[in-house]
What does this fold into?
Amino acid sequence: SKGEFLIFKLFVENKNKLLKRETVAQKIWGQNWEDKYSDWAMDRMMFRIRYKLKLFGLDQKLLKTLKTRGFIFG
It folds into this structure.
């Protein structure tokens, strides 16, 4: 999906850096992200990205979740 592509691009551009959930949400949902954001939606998107990493033969553990803080890719 478009959102997954935007997130993956953001992760690649910020490899091995902590990205806060808010930063990722802004990338997906734009300026009014707070109106559209939910933890469930964010977690499902990360699940789908991990699944696609696996489909391409990459380790799902490349995408790490730091509870309440954000995500690290790399």
User: Anything to note?
Assistant: The mean pLDDT is 90. The longest strand covers residues 63-66.
